[in-house]
Design goal:
Layout (H helix, E strand, L loop, with lengths): L13 H12 L7 H14 L9 H12 L6 E5 L4 H9 L3 E5 L12 H12 L6 E3 L14
Parallel strand pairs: 1-2, 1-3
Amino acid sequence: MKRVYLSVPHMGGDEETFVREAFASNQLSSVGSQLDAFEHEMSSLVGLPSVALSSGTAAIHLGLRLLGVSPDDEVVTPTLTFVATVNPVRYLGAKPIFVDSERASWNQRQTRWLERRCFRLFFQRQQDHHHHRRWHADGSEAGLCG
């Protein structure tokens, strides 16, 4: 039987050094110089404040809250996912709208239907609340540009 590998690690030369530094400094949790440096570098890269979170679920939850997702909003999400990526939508009382995933990357398939729906919903935003969420699944890049 052919295996499907999920989240295969991509290790370079620096990872072992960073892990040894984290153990030596006892900074293995949500604090430390590596985390501070990462947040600072990310802020510099995007030109906005940045914060590292403990999980992808926490990041999705925070992102949806910052977008203003509220009860009865719709959030477009891929079908190939874990429940943890949909839970934040439900935490906020919103409704997940599932869209097929691409075979090659397992990410959300960009379709004309989705483009038209998001375009139409964007202009209805004044009266209704709808959100379209894209993320990178298991190390595969979401097709953000088409």
